[in-house]
Predict the 3D structure of the following.
Amino acid sequence: MNLPKKWEAIARGGGVMSELIERLRDVMTRIGNMCAEGRPPKMSIPARPDYDDDIIICESVKAGIAALEAQAKRIAELEARLAQVEGDAAKQFAAGMERAAGICDNADKSMHPADLADFIRAAKEQK
């Protein structure tokens, strides 16, 4: 999508989302005014991008769409990364539980919990 330079940062999801929100609120006001006044959008010849309703409305909607698409893509990337991290963490946890179970199987079941903790620490140091 070819956007004016002033909208490119918004489409990338930069720190100017508040500017996009402000522009979209302005669009709602402009459309409300057109309806209340029973008039079509203001259009100039030559076109005035900072005044003409049709240009402002279309640019704002395009920027909103681009920003939403960029954010949806970023969310999908983050969700995929989170699933990968969760999978890695689950594997590490399972491996740790298996090691702990092996250590406990070798321990004297009648040990006091503090002695068992010392036994586990010593077993870890041997590995």
